[in-house]
Design a protein that fits this description.
The complex is a heterodimer of chains A (188) and B (572).
Chain A lengths: L1 H30 L10 E4 L2 E5 L36 H17 L23 E2 L1 H5 L2 H8 L3 H10 L1 E2 L10 E3 H9 L4
Antiparallel strand pairs in A: 1-2, 3-5, 4-5
Helix pairs in contact in A: 4-5
Chain B lengths: L2 H29 L9 H11 L9 H24 L16 H12 L9 H4 L2 H31 L9 H25 L11 E4 L5 E4 L5 H9 L20 H25 L3 H27 L3 H5 L17 H14 L14 H13 L8 H21 L4 E2 L2 E2 L2 H31 L17 H16 L14 H30 L16 H35 L1
Helix pairs in contact in B: 1-9, 1-12, 2-7, 3-4, 3-6, 3-17, 4-17, 6-7, 6-8, 6-17, 7-8, 8-9, 9-10, 10-12, 10-13, 10-18, 12-13, 13-16, 13-18, 14-15, 14-17, 14-18, 15-16, 15-17, 16-17, 16-18
Chain lengths: 188, 572
């Protein structure tokens, strides 16, 4: 028994060095050569950091494309989903309110045009994407508030739609931050 | 066929393409045959030397279990104190506090047991140091523990009669040096170059496009996320686990995480058949497990793609499926696939929030964890399956009126008793645990705990009951996923699930290894016309029937009170 304890202690110490010092330092060193230099890829506008490429942010102004509902208000100091069950009455009321808000700000769309992702909270609370349909229903509103041609906005949506992987696997999606940056760059 | 379903097929096919050769490789590694990774031998010799281990020293099954339990006990004590005093240790750039005793108790057990149930959030509850020396360290070694235990079990059936079953430390170290560490390194690099952070910088702050001030938690997550999946651990660097965009940046990383968590459990089954020189038995077990997986997977996908009927009534479009708690970059189809994979295998990482999945999906997730051996966790999945197999051998023996045998060894009262006790253990822990929690919720709602019992549940009615049932089931299965709406960081949940995890981990390892050890040391009886063959289709079906009957009898009432009741209420 005593030998097992000693062996366990020594083996634990050796493995701590191998697995918790050497291994992560190799990964960290290699990660320094990635796009974000290991700290996460940032997006800048006029030399100022305005966000992380992978993290969604809150857009509430009508002249921006809106993202999904978030249980943490897009504050990336934490992350969480709503954890609301599918039959929870409070939750269903929330969804119904979100539908009303969307209809109010986008009076030309019909209920059946609204895709589920626009009225539900994401798993992380930091989802950077919406579906293509989620962007399409907002085009008219953006064009009116920004006083730009609807066609130009629609083109931006198409340009910023990421197709399935290799065109074959998974869903297509639109990165809201990148789309809104492109929108800000649009000439009137 | 749509691109989301194609993604599922491609992922599963790729998994098999990697797992099957990996199984062949593992069989050779643990049999001590020549393999191309033998150039790592000097590293292993170094580890043995520094630890005072003689890898040639053969152990019987009892010595194996003593070694296993001793080193696990060392990790429990070590981790408990490091987590409690993490605030006083270095590498804590965000200034996070130490854990309370009950939370530390729960967390360290959970990680030692390969469960990774998390009652804290990665962003605020641990430090960069503890993420490494406790979380990530235990992810490696708990998985290696499971694999080593399974190899002991392999050894018992390789030769006709064997008492000496190799050296525990050798299996354990090799699992790390020949399998976990090299593969983790590759996976971690894939993550690093897809956007997962790897640097030790603290929280960042920026002003968003719209003018809000936003904080961003970061840290060297890539290395941990690799072993988190490869080792079927599942504990996330960030609170939202693999739904978090930094922990799972895109569809490619999502596929990598899905493949990584499945390859070792499948490879171990293949390796078993090769190692004991009965390939057909290995394939038969693989077949039963695969059928089990698809029987849970197909209804799960169908239930998620159908969307939430309550939202359909509101008149919106759920063209791709239910989206609450899911991420757009993955979509409902692969998220449904993930929820099946992560529950049948004891990973417990999530890329969508299980609390928000449809009621029937919840039922399939629970069932996957209750069975816990459709592939199952690293090494331990096969051990769990072996218990069902022994019960099937016993019942078949009774049906044909012969002494039951397994691989030329008589299965007698002692072995069957152990198998029966282990079989009864899961329902006992799950049902008793849920009953205790439900009782406290209803009768002692005002107890002055960190989260008052009456405020535990995030959802009313049947779904609330499911939250509690899921938490205990996940603990017993050493799974670690949760219906995360549950307010679980308080004395009752920390202690209750801690105890359930501990018992649910070690007894189901000791039981099968003991049976194997006892059987292996018995006299070998050559096969005759009267031998019950365990590698036939008939016997495969028999095992499957045993799995279905045992689990249906144990859990149907509990499932009926939770997810099934919710499903039928929603039909109205």
């Amino acid at each position: 028994m005593k030998t097992y304890i000693l062996q366990s202690l020594r083996l634990t110490a050796v493995l701590l060095v191998l697995l918790c010092v050497i291994y992560p330092l190799i990964v960290s060193f290699a990660g320094g050569f990635s796009k974000g230099k290991g700290g996460g890829e940032k997006i800048t506008k006029n030399g100022k950091v305005v966000g992380y490429a992978l993290l969604g942010q809150s857009f509430t102004k009508p002249e921006y494309f809106w993202g999904r509902a978030s249980a943490v208000g897009y504050n990336a100091a934490g992350s969480a989903g709503s954890n609301k069950g599918p039959s929870n009455p409070d939750y269903l009321k929330q969804v119904s309110d979100r539908i009303d808000t969307l209809l109010k700000y986008n009076p030309t769309i019909k209920k059946a045009d609204i895709p589920a992702d626009m009225v539900t909270a994401s798993g992380s609370g930091l989802d950077p994407n919406i579906s293509e349909q989620g962007a399409i229903i907002q085009i008219k509103r953006i064009a009116v508030y920004r006083k730009v041609d609807e066609k130009k906005v629609a083109e931006l949506v198409v340009e910023n739609t990421q197709k399935p992987l290799f065109g074959l696997f998974g869903p297509s999606s639109v990165n809201v931050l990148k789309l809104n940056l492109a929108l800000d760059g649009l000439k009137k | 066929m749509n691109t989301e379903l194609l993604g599922i097929i491609a992922t599963y096919v790729l998994t098999l393409v990697i797992a099957i050769p990996l199984g062949k490789y593992l069989a050779k590694v643990f049999a001590g045959e020549k393999v191309w990774t033998d150039f790592l031998k000097p590293i292993e010799s170094g580890i043995y030397k520094l630890s005072g281990i003689n890898p040639k020293e053969e152990m019987n099954w009892k010595q194996h279990m003593k070694a296993l339990l001793t080193i696990n006990l060392v990790w429990l004590v070590y981790g408990f104190f490091v987590l409690m005093y993490q605030d006083k240790l270095p590498l804590n750039p965000d200034g996070n506090p130490g854990m309370t005793a009950d939370l530390s108790f729960n967390t360290v057990i959970s990680f030692v047991a390969n469960c990774d149930l998390q009652h804290y959030s990665g962003e605020s509850g641990v430090t960069y140091l503890t993420q490494h020396v406790v979380m990530m360290f235990l992810m490696f070694v708990s998985c290696a523990t499971g694999i080593a235990a399974a190899v002991v079990f392999f050894k018992a059936f390789r030769d006709k009669t064997s008492v000496k079953l190799g050296n525990f430390w050798e299996f354990f170290v090799k699992a790390i040096t020949r399998l976990l560490l090299p593969l983790s390194l590759i996976i971690a690099l894939i993550f690093a170059f897809n956007g997962t952070p790897t640097s030790y910088e603290a929280k960042d702050q920026f002003i968003s496009l719209q003018g809000d001030t936003v904080n961003v938690s970061r840290g060297p997550a890539a290395g941990m996320i690799a072993i988190k999946h490869l080792g079927t651990n599942g504990g996330g660097w960030f609170g939202a686990n693999s739904a978090h965009p930094l922990e799972n940046p895109n569809y490619i990383t999502n596929t990598v995480e899905l493949i990584a968590q499945m390859i070792i459990p499948i490879a171990m089954v293949i390796a078993f058949g090769i190692f004991i020189r009965r390939r057909k038995l290995g394939w038969m077990i693989f077949g039963v497990m695969t059928i089990g997986m698809f029987l849970l997977l197909i209804p799960t996908i169908s239930s998620e793609l159908g969307g939430n009927p309550a939202l359909s009534k509101m008149g919106i479009s759920q063209a791709t499926g239910a989206m609450e708690g899911k991420e757009v970059r993955f979509g409902p189809a692969i998220s449904a696939y993930w929820s099946t994979v992560t529950t049948i295998i004891s990973t417990g990482s999530v890329n969508s929030m299980h609390d928000s999945t449809m009621p029937l999906t919840g039922a399939w997730q629970l069932l996957g964890m209750m069975v816990n051996s459709f592939y199952g966790g690293c090494g331990v999945g096969l051990l769990n399956y072996f218990i069902y197999l022994i019960i099937a051998v016993f019942i078949s023996g009774l049906m044909v009126g012969r002494t039951p045998e397994f691989l030329g060894h008589k299965v007698e009262a002692r072995e069957v008793k152990i198998a029966a006790l282990i079989t009864l253990l899961s329902p006992f822990l799950i049902l008793a645990g849920t009953a205790i929690a439900s009782f406290i919720f209803t009768s002692h709602g005002d107890a002055a705990w960190a989260v008052q019992p009456k405020n535990w549940l995030n959802n009313p009615g049947f779904h609330g009951f499911s939250e509690m049932l899921y938490e205990v089931t996940s603990s017993n299965a050493n799974n670690g996923s949760g219906f995360e709406g549950l307010g679980d960081n308080n004395i009752l949940w920390n202690v209750l699930t801690g105890a359930v995890i501990l018992i649910g981990r070690f007894l189901p390892i000791i039981g099968p290894v003991a049976i194997a050890g006892l059987l292996g040391s018995k006299k070998y009886i050559p096969e005759s016309a009267g031998t019950l063959k365990t590698d036939t289709l008939t016997f495969g079906l028999m095992t499957f029937a045993v799995i279905v009957v045992l689990n249906a009898l144990s859990y149907f009432p509990a499932l009926a009170l939770g997810p099934l009741a919710e499903y039928f209420t929603m039909l109205k």
